[in-house]
């Protein structure tokens, strides 16, 4: 990157480093000034993507969280442009601030409590995770930011021939199910009586595999393909999205995913009937994130 920061991943420390370009009288202040001047001239609007690790090089959640903090601090200080970290995680459950105790694993499996919005979810192999770290005008319109991420992922899914959508009152990207009257006895699962219709505290983990979140596709119910959880600090976003490409979705059966008891989870592979690895999805998601985030004109939230 000319006139900006140079990125490199340090293998030993497992993190991203930022090296200021050499400038006369250089240093951080000069780099910030140059970045601001380029932004004013319209030459710095490009979103930078950083691949932290995939497959065998998947990044532990706590390591990635610390990396987010470093990038967040650098973005706030105007030392780097808007940056999106892309990666896979080893299996891990993470819980947002609104997670209830009865939504966590019943067997006491460890959960990482994080400072994002939303509830509990799972990250792991076969899932593309993105952490867009963007500076937005204050007061930040978080909902608008979420909608932009949803739109990029909806467009990416469309490129694979899968129609997805939003669901009112529920963030993320969804595959809609069939009308209730058309769902009986599909995929070998007959649901003559659905306890979720009358029991607000219904727990699918206690009701057998036919009610498991990972079987929502067989039941032809609404199912979440991509989850989104955001935090904004000092006008800069953190955390982001996870898109299920070809994961083992039974990991979700140990929790109440996103605190939603009457829907399930999906994957691109499950919906399309073929293996769709993260490596195939990565460039498509990058393309649409770039289209949406680079051309958007974020506005402050109306107060």
Please outline what is shown here.
This protein is 24% helix and 23% strand. The chain has helices spanning 28-40, 61-76, 142-159, 216-219, 268-272, 278-295, and strands spanning 6-10, 15-19, 48-53, 83-87, 92-95, 112-113, 120-123, 127-133, 165-167, 170-175, 223-233, 236-244, 264-265. Strands 3, 4, 8, 9, 10, 11, 12 and 13 form an 8-stranded mixed sheet that branches. It has a 3-stranded mixed sheet with strand order 6-5-7, with no helix packed on it. Strands 1-2 form a two-stranded antiparallel ribbon.
What would the keywords be for this entry?
BirA Bifunctional Protein, domain 2; eight-stranded mixed sheet; three-stranded mixed sheet; 6 helices; 23% strand
Folded structure, characterized:
The protein folds into two domains: 1-44, no CATH class; 49-295, BirA Bifunctional Protein, domain 2, CATH 3.30.930. 24% of the residues lie in helices and 23% in strands. It has six helices and 13 strands. The strands form three sheets. Strands 3, 4, 8, 9, 10, 11, 12 and 13 form an eight-stranded mixed beta sheet that branches. Helix 3 crosses helix 6 (278-295). The longest helix is centred in the middle third of the chain and has 18 residues, at 142-159.
Give a topology summary.
Layout: E1 6-10, E2 15-19, H1 28-40, E3 48-53, H2 61-76, E4 83-87, E5 92-95, E6 112-113, E7 120-123, E8 127-133, H3 142-159, E9 165-167, E10 170-175, H4 216-219, E11 223-233, E12 236-244, E13 264-265, H5 268-272, H6 278-295
Parallel strand pairs: 3-4, 5-6, 11-13
Antiparallel strand pairs: 1-2, 4-8, 5-7, 8-12, 9-10, 10-11, 11-12
Helix pairs in contact: 3-6
